[in-house]
Design goal:
alpha/beta, seven-stranded mixed sheet
């Protein structure tokens, strides 16, 4: 399986930090955000990774290179300015990702779930990792039935930014700027959207305050990554 890291966002809520440093390269717990994902992908046995680029994309490319140091082969999908959004960015990268399902992770989230625990059921177009609604997203996105079928209501769960997607999810889409959510809603309506709930630690590291809070938790050992262990103190 290949993987894609979404790393093209401008990071408006993370300003002023993101003015000079793209969000995936911001450090927390002694490592850059993207380092956690690369380590988790390597641990899961994934060797080919695509990273989309827009805001300060040259800095991301320079920082992680071709992935050899991490035991990976990293390729890039440039989008120009403005970026193409979550759906448009994935559509642009499909030629690099191939015809098989791929793992997707947002570059600005932190999660302690080992990536190898994701398994997409047969007959689905997308399999989502869902978490309890965080304070900044109380309305949620989806519900989840005991058998793993994602439903539209009620919505006690939020999409974590970690998923397995089948490229067929994008059938009929044209190159351009668009979000991923409508495609997930379409798969849900066709009963082709599955999910699993994660009750461990997750953070949408979207603001300087949440970045600082996570940094403290990691350095105090209050949360731990399954691969990279942060220095104490």
């Amino acid at each position: 399986m290949k993987a894609m890291i979404l790393a093209a966002g401008r990071g408006e809520r993370m300003r002023p930090l993101s003015n000079v440093t793209p969000k995936p390269l911001l450090e927390v717990g002694g490592y850059r955000l993207i380092d956690y994902h690369l380590a988790a992908l390597t641990q899961a046995g994934i060797r080919e990774v695509v990273v989309n680029l827009s805001w300060h994309g040259d800095r991301i490319r320079e920082a992680i290179g071709d992935g050899v140091r991490q035991g990976l082969r990293i390729s890039y999908s440039p989008e120009g300015t403005p970026p193409l959004g979550t759906g448009g960015g994935l559509q642009r990268a499909l030629p690099l990702l191939g015809a098989d399902p791929f793992l997707l992770v947002n570059g600005d989230v932190w999660i302690d779930l080992p990536f190898e625990k994701l398994q997409q059921p047969a007959g689905t177009l997308a399999h989502l990792v869902l978490i309890a609604n965080p304070p900044h997203h109380p309305r949620g996105d989806f519900g989840l039935e005991p058998g793993g079928r994602v439903v539209a209501a009620p919505t006690p769960l939020t999409y974590s930014g970690l998923a397995i997607l089948d490229p067929q999810l994008f059938d009929g889409c044209e190159d351009g700027r668009f979000p991923l959510k409508p495609l997930l809603d379409r798969a849900l309506a066709d009963s082709k959207l599955s999910g699993q709930r994660h009750d461990g630690f997750w953070s949408d590291v979207g603001t300087p305050e949440r970045l600082a809070a996570l940094d403290v938790m990691l350095r105090l050992g209050q949360v731990r990554h399954p691969v990279l262990q942060s220095p104490v103190g």
